[in-house]
Amino acid sequence: MNADRSHLAGSERILRTDARRNRERIVRAAREVFTARGIDAPLAAVARRAGVGVATLHRRFPTRDQLVAEAFGEQFGACTHALEKAIDDPDPWRGLSALVHTVFALQAGDRGFTQAFLDRHPRAAESTKLDEAERALNALVDRCRDAGMVRQDVTSADVTLAFLANAGLVARGSVPRSASARLAGQLLRAFAVSDGSPLPPSPALPLRPLLSGTVRSAGPDPVLRRP
Question: Which part of the chain is the HTH tetR-type domain (predicted)?
Fold first, then answer.
């Protein structure tokens, strides 16, 4: 009897370990596939990369949104932390600037996260958190405006538009990451009443290869030759 119980307990531990490893493989594979192909990539491709069956994937993550949220949980957490830091900063303009630069950098670092951050409807369980984040962003911009740090017609919607603009830049897939930092600086300067802080360096972006799709990154900040 005791031997049977020990055997059963050992088998259950093995099953739990296998389930945990499968979950970890699925999440890692999803992050890689979504980053390379976008969050609408076939889930079968995620399953193949993870080395599991599609049925196993669906048992662990019944919906695509759940898988997306888990795959990019670290980045979403970083955004939440950046917003909390911005709200806690006694200087609202410094807080807003840091928030925009942080989110832009996260977007530039991961195409899949950029799409997840802006394009996909969240899980119902996350809707309350998103509502709280929206209220916090509204309050942050209001503080900047009340302190005379941004123009009176600037709203939190302008910050959202900035994130959308950077998403379009990231989706191009052929510009250096420093372009996102430059764009953040330009947009923040447009928001500000007076901000003398220097802009990040301008990346080399010749117009012709950019429009023809021939710009290719040769590292974090490539030097491009004239066409």
Answer: 20-79
The per-residue pLDDT for range 72-108, each reduced to its tens digit, is 888 888 998 999 999 999 999 999 999 999 999 999 8
Measuring CA to CA, how many Å separate 161 from each of 10, 22, 128, 174, 198? 54, 38, 22, 21, 22
Q: What domains does the chain contain, in order, with CATH numbers?
A: 9-62 (1.10.10.60), 71-194+205-213 (1.10.357)
The pairs formed by 186-191 with CB atoms below 8 angstroms and a separation of 24 or more are 187/100, 187/162, 188/96, 188/97, 188/100, 191/96, 191/144, 191/150, 191/151, 191/154, 191/158
CB 209 within 8 A of CB 227: yes
